[in-house]
Amino acid sequence: MTQPDNTDEAVIRLFNVSKRFGAKLALSNITLDIQKGEWLYVTGPSGAGKSTLLKLFYLGEKTTSGQVLAFGTNMNRLARKDIPFLRRRFGIIFQDFKLIPNRNVFDNVALVLEARGEPRNMIDKRTRNILRHAGMDKRMDAMPASLSGGEQQRVAVARAIAGQPEVILADEPTGSLDPKSAEIIIGLLSAYHEKGATVMVATHDRDLLARKKGRIIRLEEGRLVEPSTGEGGAP
Fold first, then answer.
1. The whole model's pTM is what?
2. Bridge-partner residues for 202, per DSSP?
3. Is 18 domain-assigned?
4. Which string of DSSP letters, residue by residue, matches 63-125?
């Protein structure tokens, strides 16, 4: 069983979770604890269920059976009106970035803070600071369509951490990126992790697994299997 010893500090817990899309079983009988402040990798081949697993945590998808508890809340019982407040506790990095195409770089990041009702001066200061650390301060006025894939991913990471969430969910954050962008992105996530955030990364990137230590779990055909090596090694 790929569980840490202490479940008292678990921020997310899964109990016998399965997910079906029609006849396809995407996840099968997953039981897992994710600890506060942990860096966790989810690995496995394409189609193994990595993205689906991450979506369950913020109700991007709902379980077919089993239970997901996030911050002590049973997600199956969460009222619709409370879902936006739960999602504010997560920072989500999507494979396809999901930047707002008609907003510039600055606004894509600032919108997260505006939605929280933060003061304007704080929004401006934090957004500029995050974009500077992401190496995007020179492109704050640029539109997403004018950015490279690596630049778009840097903005997506900046947006994910702007609201200071408790948990970061990153779906292939370094996939197909140039080495410089990948290094900046891992640096941003690592710095935020060191402040106490929980980080969960779905990835195929063996270089990433070697560069940043963390617990590794592996999915195969929707089933959770033991990793073939310990922390910090590629499976």
1. 0.88
2. 42, 171
3. no
4. -SEEEEEETTEEGGG--GGGHHHHHTTEEEE-TT----TTS-HHHHHHHHHHHTT--HHHHHH
Helix/strand/coil for 20:
strand
Tell me which residue range forms the domain holding 201.
Answer: 35-59+79-225
The identity of residue 39, as a single letter, is W
Q: Whole-angstrom Cα distance, residue 41 to residue 208?
A: 10
- Range with lowest mean pLDDT among 75-89, 130-144, 176-190: 176-190
Tokens of 20: 């079906």
Confirm whether 17 is domain-assigned.
no
Give me the count of residues in the chain: 235
- The sheet with strand 39-43 has its strands ordered as 90-93, 167-171, 198-202, 39-43, 215-220, 223-225
Which tens digit of pLDDT belongs to each residue from 58-77? 999 999 999 999 999 999 89
Cα 52 to Cα 65: distance, rounded to the nearest angstrom = 14
More confident residue, 103 or 84: 103
C-alpha–C-alpha distance, residues 196 and 11, integer Å: 12
Does the residue 72 lie in any domain?
Answer: no
Separation of alpha carbons 134 and 184, rounded Å:
7
CATH number of the domain bearing residue 133: 3.40.50.300
130 occurs within a structural domain: yes
* Average pLDDT, integer, range 162-171: 94
* Dist. CA 25–CA 49, nearest whole Å: 9
Specify the number of domains making up the chain.
Answer: 1
